[in-house]
Structure to design on (351 residues):
């Protein structure tokens, strides 16, 4: 049984006694910083010179410093920059200021697990990983709740690393929902596997394959979009609330029968074998090596895949359909920026 911690297991005063630098101000960075600030913690944001995030952070009352200055100032340094840049950021701006007694924290174990960051033995190294995107970490906290999370200690120089990590977790609201104790290795490997096999890689490929199957058979792409992509949220929301059992309880008997008969034909022994290969490549470092090398050599393949996927027919057919449903708060992604979707002009019937 996993060991889980809640509010009563964490002492908020511990993190309130520390100066906390949040390195990075993206999805997780803004949530951690604002939640900690609301919990009475002294927080500063560390960003590189010229960062576009500086204005956003200052607009909500957060003090921004250069990354190196923030690392020097802080007792606790939480690194929330992208996995592929953390190694360089640490070496250039954080490592010179990792003096004895400080705490280095992460929300994902990637760079410790794959040995791109090597903290000195005199500091604590821990992880607090909310199991939700940053905007949800913030929204749920403001509403008075919290998102569940994971906590781990890689290095306990002080003897108090876990206590401080739990205090931090309480400061961002995770202990309200429960924090499960894990290791950097387990968190990293399961997180990467879940993203690749299910949450991103598996789901994206399944949606596209189903859409392509219907449209190739002559069905209207708009109808195929609704059946293969739009309605997925309805099913996921049911699973989110009550597991697979609640989803099956809520759908028709016909759909449930199709679940049992078709599922094993889609996820075959070959699929499971490929999942094992994915996991093996995560465990032996092959995936991490390839991803870091992709970034080191200009990300040409990655950017080409991003461009290619953005042009997929399901994206083209889906954009105007979502734009016609303002209750979804639809958005579009253009050149890496998120924009509100423009509502299409309705066609005149019979025109």
């Amino acid at each position: 049984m996993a060991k889980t911690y809640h509010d009563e297991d964490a002492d908020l005063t511990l993190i309130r006694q520390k100066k906390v630098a949040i390195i990075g101000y993206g999805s997780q960075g803004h949530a951690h910083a604002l939640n900690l600030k609301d919990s009475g913690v002294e927080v500063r944001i560390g960003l590189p010179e010229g960062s576009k995030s500086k204005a956003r952070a200052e607009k909500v009352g957060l003090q921004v410093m250069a990354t190196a200055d923030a690392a020097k100032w802080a007792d606790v340094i939480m690194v929330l920059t992208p996995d592929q840049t953390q190694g360089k950021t640490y070496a250039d701006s954080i490592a010179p200021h990792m003096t004895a007694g400080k705490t280095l924290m992460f929300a994902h174990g990637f760079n410790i697990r794959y040995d791109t960051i090597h903290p000195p033995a005199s500091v604590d190294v821990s992880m607090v990983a909310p199991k939700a995107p940053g905007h949800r970490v913030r929204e749920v906290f403001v509403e008075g709740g919290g998102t569940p999370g994971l906590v781990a200690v890689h290095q306990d120089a002080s003897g108090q690393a876990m206590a401080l990590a739990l205090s931090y977790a309480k400061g961002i609201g995770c202990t309200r929902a429960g924090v499960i104790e894990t290791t950097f290795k387990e968190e990293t490997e399961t997180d990467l596997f879940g993203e690749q096999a299910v949450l991103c890689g598996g789901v994206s490929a399944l949606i596209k394959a189903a859409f392509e199957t219907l449209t190739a058979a002559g069905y209207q792409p708009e109808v195929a979009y609704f059946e293969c992509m739009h309605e997925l949220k309805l099913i996921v929301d049911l699973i989110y609330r009550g597991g697979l059992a609640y989803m099956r309880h809520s759908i028709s008997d016909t759909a449930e029968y199709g679940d049992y008969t078709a599922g094993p034909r889609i996820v075959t022994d070959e699929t499971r074998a490929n999942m094992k290969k994915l996991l093996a490549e995560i465990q032996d470092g092959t995936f991490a090596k390839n991803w870091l090398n992709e970034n080191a050599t200009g990300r040409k393949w990655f950017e080409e895949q991003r461009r290619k996927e953005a042009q997929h027919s399901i994206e083209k057919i889906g954009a105007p359909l979502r734009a016609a449903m303002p209750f979804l708060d639809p958005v579009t992604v253009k050149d890496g920026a998120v924009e509100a979707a423009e509502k299409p002009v309705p066609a005149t019937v019979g025109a």
